[in-house]
Write a structure and sequence with these properties.
The chain is α+β, with helices and mostly antiparallel strands. It has helices at residues 2-25, 68-72, and strands spanning 40-43, 50-56, 59-66, 95-98, 101-103, 106-114, 119-129, 132-140, 143-151. It folds into 2 domains: 1-30, no CATH class; 33-151, Beta Barrel (Lipocalin), CATH 2.40.128. It has an 8-stranded antiparallel β-barrel. A hairpin with a 2-residue loop joins strand 7 (119-129) and strand 8. It is globular and about 40 Å long. The chain starts with a helix and ends with a strand.
Length: 153
């Protein structure tokens, strides 16, 4: 009798462990991010920017597709760049995200360029779910800012 009860409860125990362990580790099993999950177009909260993230070999790159500034002036240039030789670049199509390495669910050790102030910052991208990213940019830790980007269908 005791053995048959053990046999009956074993599948329940396995299912329970499979559900509890990811929760303890902070992993959502319904959201197992693939390396390409972050690929696509994302709406940023600042200036209604649209950034297209794509794979660049093993890394991740992001280019400006659209923004309030680009809509107002499609020929807008990177006039705030700290490098004067780059100030004639068009904002539309400009690579502003790059150099990332995948580490588990996150993309780390990357950089993000901000055309509004001409600064380049260390960055981390963390997928929250299939349609949400958290992008954290830092001048130097702990001087960081996190933005939430939403996927554009």
């Amino acid at each position: 009798m005791e053995r048959s009860l053990m046999r009956l409860w074993k599948p329940v125990g396995v299912a329970l462990v499979a559900a509890v362990i990811p929760a303890i580790l902070g992993v959502n099993p319904a959201f197992a991010a693939s390396a390409d999950q972050v690929v696509g177009k994302w709406l940023t909260p600042s200036k209604h920017g649209v950034i297209e993230l794509s794979r660049c070999g093993e890394s991740l790159c992001g280019h400006v597709v659209d923004s309030d500034g680009v809509r107002a002036n499609p020929d807008i240039r990177d006039v705030n760049n700290k490098d004067a030789s780059l100030r004639s670049r068009k904002i539309k199509g400009l690579q502003m995200v790059g150099g990332f390495k995948r580490q588990g669910e996150e993309w780390v050790e990357g950089q993000i360029y901000n055309p509004e102030d001409g600064g380049t910052y260390k960055a981390t991208i963390t997928p929250v779910d299939a349609n949400t990213l958290k992008l954290k940019g830092c001048i130097v830790w702990p001087l960081c800012k996190t933005q939430t980007w939403k996927r554009i269908p």
